[in-house]
């Protein structure tokens, strides 16, 4: 089976970052492009539940977007609201993503990983991964999980094949 590039949208959620200071979003774009995927678009929105939900919902509704990656807003401080904004959009949750991410992150940041509410799910034939805002967390998620799971050649299973064939579960 040959590699199939996926169309990926990247959303940075931050009240303070802009294109020049968005290391996490830049890291995700560099990694997805170096893996052979296509960047559909990249945006930055403030950490506001309704602005986040509107952006992600628009991408979920766009048949040209197969994968959405968000970075930021997954903690417990102040305005962190990504799980509340995005989780309600899922047809089915990928519980194992958050579990595996925190397991891998534990080796890097110890028990502080318990404060990550990283999550993922399927919505309208789109797979959505919500990552923490730190560049290190984005590297960990991409290098240790997403690189393989967004490659249709990865065995025994991967999310790329489910997105490409529209064969995913609904809640």
UniProtKB/TrEMBL annotation:
A cellular component term, taken from the record's GO annotations: cytosol
Residue intervals of the MoaB/Mog domain: 9-153
Family matches, as InterPro entries: MoaB, MoaB/Mog-like_dom_sf, MoaB/Mog_dom, MoaB_proteobac, MoCF_biosynth_CS
UniProt entry keywords in alphabetical sequence: Molybdenum cofactor biosynthesis
Pathway: Cofactor biosynthesis; molybdopterin biosynthesis
Gene3D superfamilies in the record: MoaB/Mog-like domain (3.40.980.10)
GO biological process: Mo-molybdopterin cofactor biosynthetic process
Function: May be involved in the biosynthesis of molybdopterin.
Family, per entry: Belongs to the MoaB/Mog family.
Protein name: Molybdenum cofactor biosynthesis protein B
Naturally occurring in which organism (per UniProt): Halotalea alkalilenta
């Amino acid at each position: 089976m040959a590699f199939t590039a996926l169309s990926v949208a990247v959303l940075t959620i931050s009240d303070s970052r802009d294109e020049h200071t968005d290391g996490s979003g830049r890291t995700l774009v560099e990694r997805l492009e170096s893996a052979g995927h296509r960047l559909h678009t990249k945006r930055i929105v403030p950490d506001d539940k309704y602005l986040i939900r509107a952006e992600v919902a628009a991408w979920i509704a766009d048949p040209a977007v197969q994968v959405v990656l968000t970075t930021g807003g997954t903690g417990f401080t102040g305005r962190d609201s990504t799980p509340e904004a995005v989780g309600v959009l899922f047809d089915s949750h990928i519980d194992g993503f958050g579990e595996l991410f925190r397991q891998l992150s534990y080796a890097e940041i110890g028990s502080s990983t318990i404060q990550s509410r990283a999550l993922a799910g399927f919505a309208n034939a789109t797979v959505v991964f919500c990552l923490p805002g730190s560049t290190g967390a984005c590297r960990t998620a991409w290098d240790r999980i997403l690189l393989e799971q967004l490659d249709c050649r990865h065995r025994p299973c991967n999310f790329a094949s489910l997105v490409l064939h529209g064969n995913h579960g609904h809640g």
